[in-house]
Specification:
The chain has 13 helices and 18 strands. The chain is α+β, with helices and mostly antiparallel strands and about 475 residues long. The strands form 3 sheets. Strands 7, 10, 11, 12, 13, 14, 15, 16, 17 and 18 form a 10-stranded mixed sheet that branches. Strands 1, 2, 3, 4, 5 and 6 form a 6-stranded mixed sheet that branches. Strands 8-9 form a two-stranded antiparallel ribbon. Strand 10 and strand 11 form a beta hairpin. Helix 6 packs antiparallel against helix 8 and helix 10 runs antiparallel to helix 12. It starts with a helix and ends with a helix.
Length: about 475
């Protein structure tokens, strides 16, 4: 779509406002709106100014002026706003030099796509993201000097089998780990997921399937068809927006928090990856599970760099409450065909070239998709360039292995702090081709340590009262 096409769409849909959106360093979608008559074709080259010092992790107040430059290919009509509003994703530039801002996540993804082309390795990195989330009917949380609590509730939650529901408790609640795939009335969220899926389709997202997920209490998944990396990251941001907005319209709330419930499965975002060149899948071959040697090297790169990668793919302290054994969580840094106990799985649903890829199962949807997908791509590229041997596949249920065997299989980091330490010591592969910058990596680590890891470490936890109050 060209700038002229966008303006024609605005006229066709009687658009009143144009909303310019971009992601901050840590994954929050930011926006501002202008009347449609203030937008013309020059806007797409000249950009619009905003205050970069008010965005987390970006500019200082003495260097605050920045530009958003809209990408016309991302135009869509927001279905939730009262007045017809056209949405445009934007890249961020320095208003003086007009250079791409190195802490803008979308710029990182654009540069990652350009890098794999510039070295002649591939022309497309395809990603398929399988995002999971919870829908709750109520949520409360608070923390202060002398108290801390959270409470979530769900019409499906197994904890509500004995609740007084005004004489109308019909008993169809989901037992823990029993949410995959019972039909209604156990699955009480079918219609809401369908509405979310249809809204996504209207926004240009190619939806493949929707279903209830394993956990009790409203865990869901809607799958999108694979797309080029930048496009999939754009879609992931829209996906989360639509899920939250539809949930709100139904008096519910959606969370992509990886582990909101104790004792049941958490929410991940499994990422399927393949590299293509000249219409051919570079990961299709005659090696293990129908993969090529390049694909095995790419797996080797991701396994080697996984501890550092998780700082971007699993970027919250809560992420590491999901990455624990026993809940289909991929804590073992190994690869295998069909095996969901390994962090990298090679799907075997189809033998076709088009379907051949591997799935990295660690990520969750709290990540910034532009940074996460770019980091995974750079690790895979390093694996191919350096011919990193992934070792032998682990074609067993790793959770059932005896301790003397399990001790030789590396694990994911046990905390966000450990992942940040790994990133600090292993990020040179991200800097190639100026895809990531040292400035971005250092700023990201400092912010996460200061504002998340350290702040969590300072606060007493309610369970500590259970353990220690009466010592």
């Amino acid at each position: 779509m060209t700038p002229a096409d966008v303006l024609a769409l605005a006229r066709e849909k009687n658009v009143k406002m144009v909303d310019f959106r971009f992601l901050d360093l840590f994954g929050t979608w930011q926006h501002f709106s202008v009347p449609v008559q203030a937008v013309d074709e020059d806007t797409f080259s000249e950009g619009l100014g905003f205050d970069g010092s008010s965005v987390r992790g970006w500019k200082t107040i003495d260097q605050s002026d920045m530009l958003v430059v809209p990408d016309p290919a991302t135009a869509w009509i927001d279905p939730f706003l009262a007045e017809p509003t056209l949405i445009l994703n934007c890249n961020v530039q320095d208003c003086i030099t007009r250079e791409d801002y190195n802490r803008d996540p979308r710029n990182v993804a654009r540069h990652a796509e350009a890098y794999i082309k510039s070295i002649g390795l591939a022309d497309t990195a395809y990603f398929g993201a399988e995002a999971e989330f919870f829908l709750f009917d109520d949520v409360t949380y608070d923390s202060g000097t002398n108290y801390s609590h959270f409470m979530v509730d769900s019409r499906e939650g197994h904890w509500n089998t004995g609740r007084d529901e005004g004489g109308n408790n019909l008993g169809y609640k989901l037992r823990p780990k029993s949410g995959y795939f019972p039909v209604p009335p156990h699955d009480q969220l079918q219609d809401i997921r369908t509405e979310m899926s249809l809204r996504m389709i209207e926004a240009g997202i190619d939806v493949e399937a929707q279903h209830h997920e394993v956990a009790t209490g409203g865990q869901c998944e809607i799958d999108m068809r694979f797309q080029p990396m930048l496009h999939m990251a754009d879609q992931m941001v829209i996906y989360k927006y639509i899920v939250k907005q539809v949930a709100r319209e139904h008096g519910m709330t959606a969370t992509f928090m990886p582990k909101p419930l104790f004792g049941d499965n958490g929410s991940g975002m499994h990422c399927h990856l393949s590299l293509w060149k000249d219409g051919k899948n570079l990961f299709f071959g005659d090696q293990y599970a129908g993969l090529s040697q390049e694909a095995l090297w790419a797996i080797g790169g991701i396994l080697k760099h996984a501890p550092a990668l998780l700082a971007f793919t699993n970027p919250t302290t809560n992420s590491y409450k999901r990455l624990v054994p026993g809940y289909e969580a991929p804590v073992n840094l190994a690869y295998s065909s069909r095996n969901r106990s390994a962090s990298i799985r090679i799907p075997t649903y189809s033998p076709s070239e088009k379907a051949k890829r591997f799935e990295f199962r660690c990520p969750d949807s709290t990540c910034n998709p532009y940074l996460a997908f770019s980091a995974l791509t750079m690790a895979a590229v390093d694996g191919i360039q350096s011919k990193i041997d992934p070792g032998k596949p682990m074609d067993k249920n790793i959770y059932d292995l005896p301790p003397e065997v399990l001790k030789d299989i590396p694990n994911t980091p046990s905390s966000l702090g450990a992942a940040l330490d790994a990133l600090e010591g292993d990020h040179e592969f991200l800097l190639r081709g100026d895809v990531f910058s040292s400035d971005l990596v250092e700023s990201y680590i400092e912010y996460k340590r200061t504002n998340e890891v350290n702040e969590m470490a300072l606060r007493p936890h309610p369970y500590e009262y259970y353990l220690y109050f009466d010592v």
